[in-house]
Design a protein that fits this description.
single chain, alpha/beta, seven-stranded mixed beta sheet, 24% strand, elongated
C-alpha cells in the first residue's frame, strides 16, 4: 500500500511506523478515537481535535470510535451524550462505533486486580488531603504511604471489600505502585480507583468504586485496539503514566501510542467546559446553545456553517507549539463561506423615513440574490416611493468627503434610483424625523438611459408600505479582552455581549424559512429566526474583515 503524503508531524509519525511494519499481522489498520467526557457540550476547541482524529481516519482508511469517557458519575448525563453525538453529526463527521468507558467497567476492574497481583498496586487509607501533602513538589520527592507495602493478599481483600461497598466515600483508594521520587509528579503513586457511592447514568448503582481518568482512558484505548491516542498538549506530562498503565495491562500488542498536539486557543474566547457550564448555571447566557457561546451547538444556533469551522481548523493547522489564534481569523473563515453561499437582503436597524415627493404609484425592482454567484438570479423588491434608510446614512452636519446623504446631496437607493435630499423635517429635539427627496427617473438601476446625476454613495432601504418590524441582535465576545490570561474569567466577562435593536426589514425575510442565513446589505450576516410570531435577525458575523490574510 502506497502511503499518503504526510502533511503534519502526526501523519509523519504514522507513516514511519507503517514503513517499519509496526502493524504487520494486524491488517495495518489505523484505529483512532475521539473521547470527550459527557459532562458538558463540545466547544470549538473540540472541533480541532475532531478534525485531526477524523482526518487521520479518512486519510489512512482506518476506523474511529466515538467514546464517552464517563468515569465521573457526579457530572455526567445522557443530555451531554446526546449533545456530543448531535454535534459530531452536524459537523459532518462519521464514526464507526459509539462506545463508553463504562462499557469496560468489568474489564477495568479485572485489570486493576491484575496490577495488585503483579505487585503494581496497593490499597491506601490516606485521605485525599494526606495524599496531596505527601506527593512532594517539583523539586522535592514525595513520601511513601505507610500502606504501600501491604501484602498482595491484603490488598486484594481490601479492594474487593471496596467494590462490595464495605467502606464509605474517601475511606480508601487503590493506588499504582510506581515511584514516589519520580521527577514527573504524575508517576508518584497515582490513584487508580476511588470510592463513590453515586448513581451512574448508565450503570445505575452496580458500582460504588469508579476508575480514575488517568487509568481508565489509556486502558480503554488498549481494550479497543486503538493504535494512536491523539490528544492535546496538556497531556504530554501524562504520557509516561499512559504507557505505564497500558504496558502492565496484559492486553495484546500493538499497544496504543499517545501523540500530543497544541490545543486551539482563540483570543477573547472562553474554552473550558467547567467555566462554560458556570455561565449556563448562573444564567449569564440562555443555555449551552446561546449564540454567544463557543460551543458547537452555540455556533450552530448562531448560523455558522460547519464547513467554515473545518476550514478554520485546517488553516490553523496541526502544530506542537502553544499558540493563540486571533478571533478575526475565525470570523474571516465564516465570512468567506457566507459571502459565497447566502442571499442578500435589505434591512435598517435604526430607521429614518425618506419620502420621494415626485414619485407616485409603485413598482417591482430586480434585486440580485448573490452578486458573487451570477447563477443565483434575481428576485423582486417592491418600491412605493416612501422608504426607510438607516439613520447612520444621513447627516445634518456631514464631515469632509462624506459619501452618504446630506441636505442638497444625492445617494443611490440600492437597486432603485438616485435621490436628492431637498428638505429635512426635524423633531422637537432637532433630530431628523423625515427626509423629503426628489428622484431621477432615468437613474433606475440597470437602465440604459443616460443620467447626468451622479451619486457617490449607495444605501440599503426598506419600503415603508411593505416593510415589517424586526428585532436585531448583535453580539460581542463573552470576554472583554485577551490581555489578562491569569485573571479570573469572571472579572473579564462582557456584560454588553448582546445588544438588541428594533428596526425594519423587507418582507422577504419574514416570508422565508426559519434559520436561513442572509447578508443584510452593508450591515452584516444574520440568521432569520422567529420568536413569539415576530421576526428576529440574529447576527452571525459582521461585514468588516479585520484579519490580514
Amino acid at each position: 500500500m502506497k502511503l499518503p503524503e504526510a502533511t503534519n508531524f502526526i501523519e509523519q509519525i504514522i507513516n514511519e511506523e507503517l514503513e517499519a511494519g509496526k502493524f504487520e499481522g494486524t491488517g495495518n489498520e489505523i484505529h483512532v478515537r475521539f473521547p470527550p467526557e459527557p459532562n458538558g457540550y463540545l466547544h470549538i476547541g473540540h472541533i480541532k481535535a475532531m478534525c485531526i482524529n477524523f482526518g487521520v481516519k479518512d486519510k489512512y482508511r482506518g476506523t474511529l470510535n466515538l467514546r464517552m469517557d464517563d468515569t465521573n458519575p457526579a457530572k455526567e448525563d445522557y443530555e451531554y451524550v446526546n449533545s456530543i453525538v448531535e454535534a459530531v453529526k452536524w459537523l459532518g463527521f462519521e464514526y464507526d462505533k459509539l462506545v463508553f468507558a463504562s462499557d469496560y467497567y468489568d474489564k477495568l476492574y479485572e485489570i486493576a486486580e491484575k496490577y495488585i497481583l503483579d505487585g503494581n498496586a496497593y490499597v491506601c487509607d490516606l485521605s485525599a488531603e494526606e495524599i496531596t501533602a505527601t506527593r512532594g513538589t517539583l523539586t522535592e520527592a514525595g513520601t511513601e504511604s505507610p500502606y504501600r507495602n501491604r501484602s498482595i493478599e491484603e490488598n486484594l481483600k481490601l479492594f474487593r471489600e471496596m467494590k462490595a461497598g464495605k467502606y464509605p466515600d474517601g475511606a480508601k483508594v487503590l493506588r499504582a505502585k510506581i515511584d514516589m521520587s519520580s521527577p514527573n509528579v504524575n508517576m508518584r503513586d497515582p490513584i487508580i480507583y476511588r470510592i463513590a457511592h453515586i448513581h451512574h447514568y448508565r450503570t445505575g448503582d452496580k458500582w460504588c468504586i469508579y476508575p480514575m481518568y488517568d487509568f481508565a482512558h489509556p486502558v480503554s484505548d488498549a481494550i479497543e485496539g486503538i493504535t494512536h491516542s491523539l490528544c492535546s498538549l496538556e497531556f504530554e506530562n501524562h504520557r509516561p503514566l499512559y504507557n505505564w498503565f497500558v504496558e502492565r495491562s496484559g492486553l495484546p500488542a500493538p499497544l496504543p501510542r499517545q501523540i500530543e498536539f497544541a490545543r486551539l486557543n482563540i483570543t477573547n474566547m472562553l474554552m473550558s467546559k467547567r467555566y462554560l457550564k458556570k455561565l449556563v448555571d448562573e444564567k449569564f447566557v440562555r443555555g449551552w446553545d446561546d449564540p454567544r457561546m463557543p460551543t458547537v451547538m452555540g455556533l450552530k444556533n448562531r448560523g455558522v456553517p460547519p464547513e467554515a469551522l473545518k476550514k478554520f481548523c485546517a488553516d490553523v493547522g496541526v502544530a506542537k507549539a502553544y499558540s493563540v489564534v486571533n478571533q478575526a481569523q475565525l470570523d474571516s473563515c465564516i465570512r468567506d463561506n457566507l459571502n459565497l453561499n447566502v442571499e442578500r437582503a435589505m434591512a435598517v436597524i435604526n430607521p429614518l423615513k425618506l419620502t420621494v415627493t415626485n414619485y407616485s404609484g409603485e413598482e417591482e425592482l430586480d434585486f440580485e440574490k448573490n452578486p458573487t454567484n451570477p447563477e443565483s438570479g434575481v428576485r423582486s423588491v417592491k418600491f412605493s416611493g416612501s422608504v426607510y434608510i438607516d439613520r447612520e446614512d444621513f447627516s445634518l452636519n456631514p464631515p469632509p468627503k462624506y459619501k452618504r446623504l446630506q441636505k442638497g446631496g444625492t445617494v443611490r437607493l440600492k437597486g432603485a434610483y438616485i435621490v436628492r435630499c431637498d428638505d429635512v423635517i426635524l423633531d422637537k429635539d432637532g433630530n431628523a424625523e423625515e427626509l423629503l427627496c426628489t428622484y431621477f427617473p432615468e437613474s433606475r438601476s440597470g437602465s440604459a438611459l443616460p443620467c447626468e446625476v451622479k451619486a457617490k454613495g449607495v444605501v440599503q432601504w426598506v419600503d415603508c408600505k411593505y416593510g415589517v418590524d424586526a428585532e436585531f441582535r448583535q453580539y460581542q465576545p463573552l470576554l472583554k479582552d485577551e490581555e489578562y490570561p491569569d485573571q479570573d474569567y469572571a472579572e473579564r466577562l462582557n456584560s454588553d455581549s448582546e445588544k438588541r435593536y428594533f428596526g425594519k426589514a423587507e418582507p422577504y425575510l419574514a416570508e422565508c424559512a426559519n434559520a436561513i442565513p442572509f447578508q443584510l446589505m452593508r450591515t452584516g450576516y444574520y440568521k432569520k429566526c422567529e420568536e413569539n410570531g415576530g421576526l428576529v435577525l440574529s447576527e452571525i458575523v459582521s461585514l468588516k474583515d479585520s484579519f490580514n490574510k
